[in-house]
Task: inverse folding
């Protein structure tokens, strides 16, 4: 049985303590022997990556589950794209991907976070598409608001990334700039180009 404890250390690292007990909880005895203990430390950018990966997974679960749970989909979508509640996604992007400070973080972690954001925007777009198919006519205004907020979020992130995160109008697909792909493959600095 694993037990996780998460805390923030004084140097702003997130520490995760994993305890493995001899038996699973609840057990007949009040105390169970701890078999092993392990500590994992996450830097702030790794915490952002983890949080955004969790958001992507939660959205994927709702979008790809049949039949679609409309309320759950709309709650997840609203929590991801609406300005009032998307402080998390936009705050992480501003904190770690702003061109002024992006060089203070490890390049591989920055690229990993950007990739998670690309996936996040794709799944939000898919969620918007699914939602548009399941809403009733009286919810059309709500759908329009979600779509406008998605555009605002996309615009803000596109500015930080230096690339468009809005899907291609005709195909609905997301394209990456070929120069950016080359710079990632070649290992050259991609902060000045568009990724």
Result:
């Amino acid at each position: 049985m694993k037990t996780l404890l998460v805390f923030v250390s004084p140097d702003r690292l997130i520490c995760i303590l994993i305890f493995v007990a001899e038996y699973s909880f609840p057990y007949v005895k009040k105390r169970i022997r701890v078999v092993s203990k392990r500590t994992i430390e996450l830097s702030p950018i790794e915490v952002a990556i983890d949080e955004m990966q969790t958001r992507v997974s939660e959205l994927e679960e709702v979008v790809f589950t049949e039949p679609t749970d409309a309320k759950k989909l709309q709650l997840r979508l609203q929590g991801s794209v609406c300005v009032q509640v998307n402080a998390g996604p936009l705050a992480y992007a501003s904190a770690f991907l702003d061109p002024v400070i992006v060089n203070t973080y490890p390049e591989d972690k920055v690229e990993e976070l950007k990739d998670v954001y690309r996936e996040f925007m794709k799944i939000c777009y898919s969620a918007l598409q699914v939602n548009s198919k399941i809403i009733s006519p009286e919810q059309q205004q709500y759908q329009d608001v979600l779509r406008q907020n998605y555009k605002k979020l996309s615009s803000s992130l596109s500015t930080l990334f230096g690339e468009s995160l809005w899907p291609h109008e005709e195909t609905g697909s997301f394209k990456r700039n070929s120069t950016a792909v080359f710079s990632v493959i070649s290992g050259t600095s991609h902060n000045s180009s568009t990724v």
Q: What stands out?
A: Residues 107-134 form the longest helix (28 residues). DSSP finds six helices and three strands in the chain. The two ends are 42 Å apart (CA to CA).
